[in-house]
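Notes continue from the previous slide.

Worked example: a multi-chain complex. Inputs as given:
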Amino acid sequence: MSTIVEAECLTKRFGDLTAIDSISFSLEAGKIYGLLGRNGSGKTTLLRLLTAQLFATGGTLLVFGEQPYENRRVLSQICFMKENQTYPKRWRVGDVLAMAASFFPRWDADYASVLSKDFQLPLTRKVRTLSRGTLSAVGIVVGLASRAPLTIFDEPLGLDVVARSLFYERLLDDYVEHPRTILVSTHLIDEVSRLLEQVLVLDQGRLIIDEEAEALRSRAFTVTGSASQVATFTAGRTQIGGEQFGSLVSATLLGNVDAGERRQAAALGLELTPVSLQQLMIHLTSTASHRKARESV
Amino acid sequence: MEYLIDENRPIFVQIAERIEEDILAGRLAEEEQVPSTNQFAALYQINPATAAKGVNLLVDQGILYKKRGLGMFVATGSRERLMEKRRELFFEQYVVAMLREATRLGIEEEQVIEMIQKGAKVP
């Protein structure tokens, strides 16, 4: 499988602030990636570096094997739909689609018009008069119909839950027909997780996870029961979280549970529950007490 | 369509389990073609690579096999093999779990046996 993005020790500083802190990763052709992280973790900065809207302070970045800066060959293969995309004042929705049609070599006009109906785009309305949700929908339509070899969706949060679910459905259907690299940046982890093949997690500018979504799904579990029994079970394991309510204690542990451990837990009267990707992220990202847990991953 | 995919467990394992269920229930006959990974992806709204991983899990176990250029098929004898696997799990999943609960509730072993005999008569 060919690599379309290669970053090595990529760093971006704004004055004293290190927004992207020496990260290395690669993106392969034809995969759906999730870029996850809290607000301010560096997601948007990373996307702006990838799309040549920002210069890196250090490290190297190759996109489709070349430097992306002012490189039309590279940029025409990337579609980056920002949540707060701005357009010229007089533009109507139809103008945005026409502009996209001329810019993206693989633009599918028929598909764009189907999507415009699905998302009920008001083609003759001025873009600046659109609600946040409709503006997001314009971005979704452009992003999907561009069929760009690298398509980036940044926080499709303006969409309501019905439109988001339509977006995920269309994205998957079209990806199956026309595989390409798709990067979805979001913090609605549980909504998108089943669409993802690979997950990248940023935390305070550092890349803390770059792993298959399926592997992350069995990465941790929670054990609940009386304090002494939980302590017996957790001995020698890596704990990344815990809670107490009344006489019950719960501990979130890293690792898989095998059949023997399942029996041990049952014998101790403990309950084992899986940890979702979203819960795992909460445990691993950024608060001082979580820092230590993260280092043990 | 959601079809009750549980977000908390690896999805590829659940896909493999669904196929196993279909074979056990006779919805997928031996030597019958299994839906493609793209069809699974569309049906469950999951990443196609994840669906492929689930299918490959069963290929590795010899439950499914690949016909070049045609797709995946259910291997002959796979239903019997799955039944055998489930029978082994039956003891762990049902008998042991039942006896543990019986102990908690103070139900004696003889009473459990009586209940099983009574249960067998329920149509």
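Summary box: The two ends of chain B are 35 Å apart (CA to CA). Chain B has two domains: 11-76, 79-121.
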